[in-house]
Design brief:
heterodimer, A: alpha/beta, Rossmann fold, five-stranded parallel beta sheet, 12 helices, globular, B: alpha/beta, Urease, subunit C, domain 1, TIM Barrel
Chain lengths: 313, 444
Amino acid sequence: MDDLAVEDITEVLRVTDSFVEVGRRPNPKVPALRGRTVATLFFEDSTRTRLSFETAARRLSSDVLSFAAGSSSVKKGESLRDTVETVEAIGVDVMIVRHASSGVPSRVAEWVSCCAVINAGDGWHQHPTQALLDLYTVRQALGGGDAGLERFRGLQVVVVGDIRHSRVARSQVAGYAALGAEVTLVAPATLLPPSLEGWPVVDVSHRLDDVLPKAQVVSLLRVQSERGSGEYLPSLREYTAGFGLTGRRAAMMAPDSIILHPGPIVRGVEIASDVAELPSALITEQVSNGVAVRMAVLFLLLGQGSLDGAHLD
Amino acid sequence: MTEHERTEHGGRAPRAVVIQGGTVIDQSGERRGDVLIESGHVTAVGDALPLPSGCTVLDGTGCMVSPGLVDLHTHLREPGREESETIETGSRAAALGGYTAVVAMPNTEPALDSAETVRTVLELGRSATVQVAVAGAITVGRGGERLAPMAEMARLGVHLFTDDGTGVQSAALMRRALEYAGGLGVTLAQHCEDASLAGAGAMHEGAWSSRLGIPGMPALAEEVMVARDIALVRETGTAIHFLHLSTAGSIDLVRKARSEGLAITAEAAPHHFSLTDACVAGYDPVYKVNPPLRSTSDLDAVKAGLADGTIDAIATDHAPHPPELKDLPFDQAPPGMLGLETALALAITELGLSLGRILGLMSWQPAAIARLDPGNGGRQGAPVAPGSEANLCVFDPTATWTVDSSALASRSRNTPYAGRSLTGRVRHTVLRGEPVVIDGVAQR
């Protein structure tokens, strides 16, 4: 996400508008990438991101090669590099890479010679399309268009949860800050990164109740159940008591403020079930916008080549 | 004397050699002089020496002629990981780097934790182009649970013992190990890393690890064990050597402990005074090493420790790995980088110390720590003077060269310095009177 200039981000958001419109048609398909081949290389399980990317690719009429590590020669001991070079030799225009280890997409981008690489989430590092779809969803909630974009300046964004282990947080913080929002991180001290040096955040808090009243966007992060095993948190229950978006806390939020969650949500841990159903919780909008944002990214990388460089990391 | 008469070491004693036109440098300073070597020993140093007929003449013009370098920390990978390095290839790399002795680390497969395994390596090392000494394991299989038979290894001449690759986690076992080693008169060398604090860390914990999303290994993991072991040394009175110190905090602890007079020595690796954690930004595992590349302030502290004598030795931690392992994702790739062929040039290029200080850190001080020096009955790090065995390094301290990973003698290619321009280049290396490197070319 750090590789994207503000103009790149705003261009993705503008192009997304037209693909949101396409998505509303009875036949939501355009011929923009006919004849192009998109490969998804998911070395880590992911249902929603993979479905979203593959749907986006198909709606652009490209061919899709789907590669899942579990069913592939990786299981037979083939190295990551050999796998990548094999897929490139088959002939693809873009590789969409998801891996449990940080940095794999940038290594893949060094290894390939003539195809683009999109980071679909790497370790704790980055998940840029998730951040882009969050930005799009917020822009939509702020009225959409360039006016919505303008309202990012000074926007109070609160990111809550397991920031230490979150690729989504790292991409979000960069994206919000690039558009002028003021980001506050809220987490138990154990779930913050060891250092925030260089992070474009205005504040860090360990008390969600203190920051909620001024928040305009509350972005929740999933807390994986293993974090509640005692090493980082005494229990998930204690996390929820301090940091869960309960009904009581949702009521503290300002009118017109919105709630985001990248999913999958764990109801009852980071968000109460009835809060997830509030009109201000835009979780399903995020999912549908995700397809349009990924269409925009693929289109800009392959259709026009106007995204700077050939990689999105 | 015949050309290849057997010496007491089983090596070959070549014909007479003279190193012409260089400046001799050793513990007693610098002086202009040719060096005559006969029967494996230095027999004369001075101008206008009479040349024996048929002697080999090595050009030392513009060069320093010093005692050979001694590496306290070399992973030769044999037995067990011969696809990465062998005693032969690692020794050739060492000779090209100006070394005449290396201490082979015991984290081979199997580990060097018995007289039998130590003997194997010593025997393979007999025909190598450097003297191969062995560090034995402190615990059986380096498992950290039971003391290895240190006495039987000590009888084979092993002086340093370490579980390098990991630290001895149990304070109680480390205390016993120090007590036992004290009784044998040997030295334990600790890889300081508290495993619980290091966790799954793959790089230095700090601003870069936080940004890159790579699990961090805090400086604390090293410092906690340094502090613990200093307390154990104070209690047991036994000597300890700290391997590859990498943090400002560790170096401070050692500085204070030494001012108390505790029997502590320490080494630092070239990569810890030449590279920082910022190198990891591209996720290339060639920059993955353990202890990890640290922050700029840690790098400065390592340099200061080398300058003020808190650190006694520069040791390479030469750790070869094949390309397929260094193509793994950063967090899965094995730690380690090559060091033997670049160490001297890095010291000259990066440290800003006099050549005399650098050679102290790379030759006679490590020789004494490993007890390979004349004071302990050895032949390494000896003054360049008549009577000393001719283990010599001849290098041009002003020559610049560019590191070419494909030109390295090591079987592996994992140098982080590929493409980097360095100052200081080894021209000749002489082992027991035999020129094993001439004009930068290994002779065998």
